[in-house]
Specification:
229 residues; mainly alpha
């Protein structure tokens, strides 16, 4: 994947993620609707590639207003990743040096890799994750919209132990996926399925679209690194 295609793919995927997020707020309070209607319009412009340089900058500024409105990233990691992608895209457009544009986009790819590895490291040093107890608590006590049928998983400790270690190993080993094109594609498919499962089980749909929006950066970086050899 070359640089231009990776940037445009990131724009499209991020725009779709923001459109979905913005639509969730159109029935909220008036001040909230005003902010997210603006974000929706800007996201549509980004989707169709209209004045992308200024649209990205406007979305960054609007993102700061959203942080102020909700007193921080109210959706946690997904909001932070969304703002990171926006800042990297804006920097790519406003930095005149192509070398530095590549460095900025490579930084986004590195952050994507670290997001999985650090998450896996935090889990593996946590005895509750190693034993499966953390997932058991999620299914049994969590405020996430888990159905009563899914809560029955809390009574299957061996299954949850296996699921816990599957997640831990995937996250810790994800950096190794960049060793070849095939392993990277496999790793990204597994990552997408992982986020899809979280969306279906716990309603964490924002993580699915935002993280996928960062996938072109790692596909480009892997291609860029191997093209040097």
């Amino acid at each position: 994947m070359n640089f231009d295609i990776a940037i445009r793919s990131t724009e499209i995927l991020l725009a779709l993620a923001f459109i979905q997020q913005s639509a969730e707020h159109l029935t909220g309070p008036r001040d909230e609707k005003i902010i997210f209607i603006q974000r929706l319009v800007l996201s549509v412009l980004l989707l169709f590639g209209i004045q992308t340089q200024w649209v990205c900058l406007a979305l960054v500024i609007l993102g700061l207003f959203i942080l102020k409105r909700f007193q921080g990233p109210y959706n946690g990691g997904s909001d932070r990743m969304g703002l990171l992608i926006l800042c990297c895209l804006s920097a790519v457009y406003f930095i005149p040096s192509f070398q530095w544009q590549e460095i900025v986009f490579a930084y986004l790819a590195l952050q994507l890799v670290l997001s999985y590895f650090i998450s896996g490291w935090v889990k593996i040093i946590n005895p509750d994750w190693r034993s499966g107890r953390a997932l058991q608590d999620v299914f049994q006590f969590s405020a996430y919209p888990v159905s009563e049928n899914l809560r029955a998983f809390a009574k299957r400790p061996h299954l949850l132990w296996g699921m816990s270690w599957a997640v831990i190993l995937f996250e810790l080993l994800f950096p190794l996926s960049v060793l070849s094109k095939d392993t990277l594609i496999c790793g990204l498919v597994i990552a997408a399925l992982f986020h899809l499962a979280n969306a279906c089980l716990f309603g964490l749909n924002r993580f699915l679209w935002i993280w996928i929006a960062a996938f072109p950066s790692i596909l480009w970086l892997q291609h860029r690194i191997f093209s040097l050899g």
